[in-house]
Write a structure and sequence with these properties.
16 helices; Isoleucyl-tRNA Synthetase, Domain 1; 4-stranded parallel beta sheet; 4-stranded antiparallel beta sheet; RNA-binding; alpha/beta; 499 residues; Rossmann fold
RNA sequence: GGUCCUGUGGCCGAGUGGCUAGGCAGAGCUCUGCAAAAGCUUCUACACCAGUUCGAAUCUGGUCGGGACCUCCA
């Protein structure tokens, strides 16, 4: 069964074949560290973490590159041409790089909370000014960019004319054509610098008050946003690489510009498979600064936001995201998150129960059920290979959960399933839940706490034996108040979990 | 205005022609000192109208609604 990926470029699901056998190059647009990450940002990084994990599981040697945009882009291109990062830095009375460091650290912390594996290379825009300048020089030399007042602009019209003949028109990714755009692009002041409204900045002349600035052949300035990804992707993944990921909102103009720049520079279209995740919405509206509806990750984890009924654990968010398809919008809501929280807990407990099942029977007592479960397990792979349908894998898992619990609680005969089936379940659940989905249930595994709880459980047991239900209920109820749930198992033992 | 996506039961959300998606919530039952947990059973659905078809949530056309991008954006 080959892996199929929906390619935004062709708008079809394609069988994934890497450029070089056994190796995969993957680039994902990282955060702009001028502020705190919010819930919306969680989506691409979790989505592509699963992609990365799965490719590695398939045995590929993957180089995963995810940039940090620390040079800022324009607030309003052509009008004020201010660097977003330095503007805010003045307000906060911080050095620009201090601000960048602060939010980079916070971002890394959040990624860790989500159990995302770090990329292999995490290049910064400011660390690759030289490469960006080099790329811009090449584009100018080839005649696809021009210099005006210390700024450099990409000549979209010329590019479109020449490369349309080669089947690479400007707009190929986002499915729009240049002529229509020219009519609809908004009027900007400072427009006279550009030959064409659709042209975009490769390098921007820095006004005196601009703090972040670098020397260049065109004077002091700073790079345009789009060029950083092209420069860093080329440097670390080559002139052509396998997968480029990012949010759908980056498709135009960011990714479109990347294609144009890289194609001019490297004489080849840069990316084989473009993958775009959809947005997280709140009341049906995209979460974003401009809509003033963001829930920061720190607020989410602590519950400190008016829209939140409670704090949500990072794993709840991860599970919530995996329960939908990455190309669909996902609507935030307390009810939805609490559903995910409970569902994940239930799945995890069943998973733990599964690992404890130990049986010897070669033959399944219930052949039909045994067969059905084998089919559902086989579908895990089928679904994930179908453009990463994590939601369907989880649905299948939940079909199997009752069977696991029933065997564990002896509501089903111990020999219901065959030894091989149980072994396969144990192996595949571990593979998908932990390795591919990157889920883990974080409990306070404090030994002292466990001993104390065990003591309370023992006291309660003695009280129950004496039919002193007042005492036994007191222990159970008050522990519940403290967030510890006691469960009387069928075999007489008592287990607990943290709510 | 242009390009594109979307409308599924109380909530979230799979699903592209015929098969129970799944989770949470609700109802009933079993187990239990009681409860919880667990298991079993169960209710609520495909925006609207027309068409194609033996058959449509799924395809086509239209109507209405929501959204994204066209400007920084995950």
């Amino acid at each position: 069964m080959p892996l199929k990926i929906y390619n935004s470029l062709t708008r079809t699901k394609e069988i994934f074949e890497p450029l070089n056998k056994g190796y995969v190059g993957m680039y994902v647009c990282g955060p702009t560290v001028s502020g705190e990450s919010h819930l919306g940002h969680a989506r691409p990084y979790i989505t592509f973490d699963v992609v990365y994990r799965y490719l590695k599981h398939l045995g590929y040697q993957v180089r995963y590159v995810r940039n940090i945009t620390d040079a800022g882009h324009f607030e309003e291109e052509g009008r004020v041409a201010e660097d977003k990062i330095s503007t805010k830095a003045i307000l906060e009375k911080l050095e620009p790089m201090e601000l960048v460091q602060k939010y980079t650290n916070l971002f890394h912390w959040a990624m860790k909370q989500f159990n995302n594996i770090e990329p292999n290379i995490e290049p910064t825009a400011t660390g690759h000014i030289v490469e960006q300048i080099g790329m811009i020089e090449k584009i100018i030399a080839d005649g696809y960019a021009y210099v005006v007042n210390g700024s450099v602009y990409f000549d979209v019209n010329k590019y479109n004319e020449d490369f349309s003949k080669k089947g690479l028109p400007y707009g190929i990714l986002s499915g729009r054509n240049l002529e229509e755009q020219l009519d609809t692009t908004r009027d900007l002041d400072n427009q006279h610098e550009k030959r064409n409204k659709a042209d975009f900045a490769l390098w921007k002349n820095a006004p005196p008050e601009h703090i972040m600035r670098w020397q260049s052949p065109w004077g002091e300035g700073f790079p345009g946003w789009h060029i950083e990804c092209s420069a860093m992707a080329t440097k670390y993944l080559g002139t052509q690489f396998d997968i480029h990921g990012g949010g759908m909102d980056l498709q135009f103009p960011h990714h479109e510009c990347e294609i144009a720049q890289s194609t001019v520079c490297n004489h080849t279209a840069p990316v084989r498979y473009w993958m775009h995740n959809n947005m997280i919405t709140i009341n049906g509206r995209k979460m974003g600064k401009s809509y003033n509806n963001v829930i920061k990750l720190t607020e989410l984890f602590t519950g400190s936001h008016p829209l939140l009924e409670k704090a949500y654990h990072p794993m709840t968010i991860r599970f919530f995201i995996l329960q939908s398809h990455y190309r669909s919008t996902l609507d935030f809501g307390n009810e939805a998150l609490q559903a995910s929280e409970k569902a994940f807990k239930r799945l995890w407990e069943a998973y733990e129960n599964l690992q404890k099942i130990s049986i010897d029977n070669i033959e399944a007592a219930d052949v039909e059920l045994d067969k059905k479960i084998n089919k559902q397990i086989a579908e895990f792979t089928e679904f994930i290979e179908d453009d990463f349908s994590t939601a369907k894998v989880l649905a299948n898992m939940f079909e199997i959960v009752p069977v696991i619990n029933a065997i564990k609680n002896k509501q089903l005969a111990q020999n219901t399933l065959s030894k091989n089936t149980i072994a396969l379940m144990q192996q595949q659940f571990t593979l998908f839940i932990e390795e591919i989905f990157g889920l883990k249930f974080q409990e306070d595994n404090n030994e002292k706490l466990s001993d104390i709880l065990q003591l309370l459980v023992d006291i309660r047991k003695e009280a129950k034996a004496k039919k002193d239900f007042v005492t036994s209920d007191k222990i159970r109820n008050e522990l519940a108040q403290l967030g510890v749930l006691l469960k009387d198992e069928k075999d007489g033992t008592v287990s607990w979990s943290f709510i």
